[in-house]
Every structure is written in C-alpha cells, then in structure tokens.
Amino acid sequence: MLLLAGRVSMSGIEPRARTTEPNMLDAGKTIVSARTIEWPKEDWWKSYRDQQLDALVSKTITGSPSLRVAQARVALSQAFAESVHAESLPNIGADASVTRERFTAQQFIPPPWAGHTAWNNQVAASLSYDLDLWGRQESIWHASVGEARATAAEAQQVKLELETATVRSYVQLAMEFTLRDIAEERLHELQQRISITRRSHAAGLGTEMEVLEADTPLPLARAQIEAIDARISLLRNQLAALSGQGPGAGDTITRPTLSLDAATGLPERLPANLVGRRPDVQANRWRVEAAQQNIDGAKAAFYPNINLLAFIGFQALGFGQLISSAANIAGIGPAISLPIFDGGRRRGNLSAKTASFDIAAENYNEVLVRALQDVSDQLVVLQSNATQRNQAEQALTTARKANELARISYRAGLSNYQHALDTQEIVLRQQEGIAQLQAVRLDAYASLMRALGGGTMDSPASEAAAARQP
C-alpha cells in the first residue's frame, strides 16, 4: 500500500467528449414517414437488371487498386494486433556463450584460474512473463483489435464507394445515350426544315435569307452530338479506370439497358441500425472503442509492474564439466518497477490518449450525423423526383399533342413548317428533361443504397480480428 501511495498521480485527466446515441438524434419527418422496405442486399446494384452493369461492378471489386490497397491495410493492422497480443504471452528463450577469458588474480577468483586464461562457458534457457495485474497489455491488445476492425470497416467503405461510383457513372452513360438519340432527332428535324426551305426557294416561294436562317442551327446541332460523344467516351474511360483497366477496356462497353423497379423507402429502426450497417460509422465506432482501451492502458502504466523471471542451465569453466549436475544454475523471482517520478511522462501519455479519445468520439458523432443527413437527402431527392417526373410526363403529353396539331396544320397548308419545328423542339426539350430526371432517380437510388451501407454488416475481416481475442 505504501508503494501505491507513492505512485505518480493521474488525477484531473478525463475525456471531455461523449459519443452521441443514435436514438437521441431527431430523424425528421422525411425519414419517419417513409414507407418500410428491406435493407439493401450486398449485390444491391442487381436491382437495375443490367447484366453489363453486373459485370462491370464485379470487375471493379476484383480489379481496383484502391480496394487492394485497403485490403493490404487490413492485413497490416491485423498483423500488428497479433504482434501486440504476443507481448502478453510468456517469452521463452535460450542462449549460449563460449568465451576465452583471462581471470584477474586480484579479486575473488580461486586457483588455479586466478591469473590464468580458460574457457568460460554457459548454456541456459530463460522465461519472462508480464503478469499484467492492472490489465495494461490486455488494454493495448484490445485497442489494436479495435483499430484492426476499424481498418476492415474502412476497406468495406472503399468497396462500397467503388460500387456506387461504378453504378453512378453507368447511369450517366445511359443518360448520355438517350440525350444523343434526342440530339439526332433534333438534327434530323433541322435537316428536314432545310430541305423544305431550299425546295421553296428553288420554286421561287422563298428567299435566300430564309435558307441561311434554316442552315444556321445545323453546326450547333452537330456540335451538340459531338459533345455527347465525347462525354460517352470519357464515361467509358472512367468505368474502365474504376476496375483497374486501361481505356481500351471501356471501348467494349455498349449502351446500358437499365430497368429499375424498386420501391422508395427506408428500412425500419433508423437511425439506430445505421451504426451496424454503414462501414464508415462502424469504423469510427471501433476507433472510439480503441481510444478508450488506450486510455485504460495508459492508466495501468501508473501502477507497479511485476514481471516473473526464471532461468535454468549450466555454467562451467572449461568444457569437461559443462553438462553436469555440479554446473547446474537456476533462478526464479519477480521484477517489480514502480513509477515514482518520471518527469510527467505518464501523465503526458495519458493526456495524449485522452485527447485522442475526444477526437475519435467527435469524429464518430460527426459521421453519425452526416450519415443520417445522407439518408434523408437521398430520400428527399427520390420523393421530389417522382413528383417532377409525373409533371414532366404530363407536359410531354401536351407537347406531343401540340406538335401533332402543328403538323396537321402544315400538311393542310394552314401554317408553315417552322411552326411544326418549334413545337417539335418543345417535345425534344421535354424528352431531355425526362431523361435527366430519370438519371437523377437512378443516381439517387444508388446514393441511397450507399447511404444505407450497401448491405454491409460487420465485415469478415473485422470478425476475424475479433475471433483472435484471448
């Protein structure tokens, strides 16, 4: 007790941050009122029912250098955790020494060795074991396991981000193909107008100015198609790069055939279940746990440390009697160290670990809040998109009727072709708007799946790290 009373004090060093309980956050009416659906499956992108997309995501998962780097970090963190665990186990070793030595004649060396040279030999086995009475090594071990779990969750997040990026790029590619169809139709209509205008001019029913006016939009229409083709090429390159392949792999990507028929809603028990579903939230949660274990380990360093030491072997001068009962040596006993004055090293270490906990806790709180916001944002986009698409479909129906009437009027000689072309342009713009709204829907669905964790539970690597706990 006197030894404990004389130890370095840790008073006044406590964490300031506290982690937020998910259920303490107000989910908001958008989340609360959402219809209930199942949690995403691990292969959530198959809801788009496009085999080419399935193949691209599969290639991304297996071929991405970013994911392989993340997986290597997992292996590194697990190896470190195993090495930390080894520190808590008994350490058994053996050593031997053979030394040619001249012994002094002025100390307690008996004859015939005093003042003479002889072989001084020793062979011994030793054992050392940290009893870890205050749990320091155990806390450090649990902290390393927590860090390994966090790294495994981060690898899952990298995988999810790559899957989502592939799907979103593919959605953009689908939209560009649709926009190209519309641009081709616009070019065709302009060419029809030019043909009619030139025939009218040739028949003496029009002017040169009207021909020039009809020709003017053509270069812009062709430039629009060229710009779309460039964006298609860039998206193909991007999809190839996501899977760790060169641009040539993108050349084989054909037009997407996306067909999403999935209900808009949220799984039950949000936001509580986000903690176990989103890899980024998991990673930050494990880092909080690891930081707490590091604090426990730093506190344990303030108490006496007791190591059990033992050895057994042989020691003799010369070789003849080295392996004999007379040359036997052995010993066992504790080694005790007590921190009394260390210049503030232990308090400084505890303060650093405590500050690290505060950082980890606030990072967790921030990620949790952003995760809930992410879910709500994507749901708002999807709900609003449904209303916008409904209005756009109505506008398209009206525009098509107006265009049909304009064409009937033109064929009856009651109006010129420009009026029909103007109403057709309105139709094309409505189609462009619907194509963009459809892309927003497909994109927001992918973002919602990512926001919900993409079917992720506790990662296999994380479970493997946990399974190796003592």
From TrEMBL:
Keyword annotations: Lipoprotein, Membrane, Palmitate, Signal, Transmembrane, Transmembrane beta strand
InterPro entries cross-referenced by the UniProt entry: MdtP/NodT-like, OMP_efflux
Coiled coil, from the record: none
Cellular localisation: Membrane
One Pfam family, short name: OEP
GO CC aspect terms: membrane
Protein's UniProt keywords contain Membrane: yes
Protein name per UniProt: Multidrug resistance outer membrane protein MdtP
Organism: mine drainage metagenome
